[in-house]
Amino acid sequence: MPLLILFIAIPVIEIGLFIQVGGWLGLWPTLAIVILTAVIGTYLLRLQGMAALARLQNNLQTGQSPMDPIVNGAMILVAGVLLLTPGFFTDTVGLLMLTPPVRAMLIRWGAAKFVNRSTVIFTSSSGPRHDPRRDNGAVEGDFVVLDDDDTQTRGNSGWTKPD
Q: What is the pTM of this model?
């Protein structure tokens, strides 16, 4: 439902702003501002996108978590889409999202929302698995049951007690 409200509210806001700014500045200056913000937004998107890609590559090479550059890159992409969308409201939101302090604030807010709504369980294929939701001291693992026939055909491996 909130997405439907956004799809209705944003065009209404944009139309209202176009009417107000167009009445104040006139048609051609209003169109020039819209085109100029798209050009400036594309330039800033390219600069910041390349910087985010370089940070991602650096984090991958040094073994650091790539999550921060990925999230920043995704937000830069959303900001670019907003800047390329004609309108004053979307341009303002897009330009704000291109500023690192606003992105950091949105990331903190989104991370807090995500952590409150989800449970994250980390697993590793190289070791035993542990489910923190069922912390009864047991560690889950994989095993193979050997029949008595298997020990005779394979011989004494040293792991079993001879009869």
A: 0.61
C-alpha 37: how far from its chain's center? 25
Q: Can you name the residues that pair with 140 across neighbouring β-strands?
A: 129
CB atoms within 10 A of CB 24: 9
**Helices vs strands, H then E, count in the chain:** 6, 0
C-alpha dihedral (69, 70, 74, 76), degrees to nearest 10: 10
Q: pLDDT tens per residue, the chain (163 residues)?
A: 788 898 899 989 999 999 999 999 998 999 999 888 888 888 888 888 888 888 888 888 888 888 888 888 889 889 988 888 888 999 899 989 988 899 889 888 887 777 666 555 555 555 555 555 555 666 666 666 666 555 455 555 556 665 5
Q: Which residues on adjacent β-strands are paired with residue 147?
A: none
Closest CA to 38 of 85, 97, 98: 85
The answer for 26, left when phi > 0, alpha when psi is -120 to 50, beta otherwise, is left
Burial class (CB in 10 A: 0-12, 13-18, 19+), 23: exposed
